[in-house]
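Submission checklist for the structure archive. All mandatory fields must be present; incomplete records are returned to the submitter.

[x] Identifier: Tigger transposable element-derived protein 1-like
[x] Organism: Camelus ferus
[x] Residue count: 300
[x] Sequence attached
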Amino acid sequence: MEKMEKQLNLWIQEMTTNRKGVADSVVVRLKAKEIYGHVTQGQENVKPFSASAGWLARFKRRYPIKNVKLAGKTSSTDQEAAEEFKKYLLSIIHEKGYTEEQVFNADETGLFYKNVGKRTYVMQMASKAPGFKSFKDSATLLLCANAKGDFKCKPLLVHRAQNPRALRGTNLNRMPVHWRWNKKAWMASDIFWDWFHHCFIPEAERYLHGKNLAFRVLLILDIAPVHCREELENAHPNMEVLLMPPNTASLIQLLSQGVIKAFKALYTRELYSKASEALSADKGTSMTDLLEGSHYSQCY
């Protein structure tokens, strides 16, 4: 274990000195497991090593490593309005007999698909992380799932390009997302309504019919310019839409209670896993080089 930790510490120092952007606990733990496998190869009775969060905390105490958090935003919430809406939502569900399978929540979120994370591991002397940069290549995702937790819609992705050069020759209809675009990669009313009528409704209907349940849907959304209350009220005869009060999404929105966070964590883990493989294969490549040249097909 000590040999592995010394090698890991040297690797972090090298990445930091050369400004290669070692980022987030995920990539450090993946690298630790990789090194442990190398140093114990051929040995007998090797103890399993999972690179747990507890081990990482102890490792950071043993070596002069600091976890630097980049600045982020905070948002206000309205606890009272959130509690009132929860009561109202429960009354609607009980009065109209919606099952957990029939209650859906959709939410938009930004995805910086080349971002190396909010925390960058650097040595104490380099705690300001000079020369490091956060990649701003972004897309908008719309995720949707039901309260039962056994169904999730195919994600909608809004990119800034209709046909990115890196995806030439790729059938975008076969991507694991519904691909849409505009120049700012933002959600827009026409994109939302296209998703609502041509993606969400057919997918929800197929799912409910497969469960032998009536095609009745309660869709919960936050308040946003693209979610027009008047249009949503009569959007579909089998559809009821509720809009949450302003500034309450972080408290009561289903997808904000860890689902989106878990999605991004899994995405980041996969990104780091591929990056770790590439860095090991080419010693002259840095994390920055990798992300600057990464392909959309690998990101998505």
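[x] Structure attached
Curator remark: The beta strands are 65-69, 103-112, 119-123, 138-146, 156-159, 178-181, 217-221, 239-243. Residues 68-75, 122-133 have pLDDT under 50 and may be disordered.
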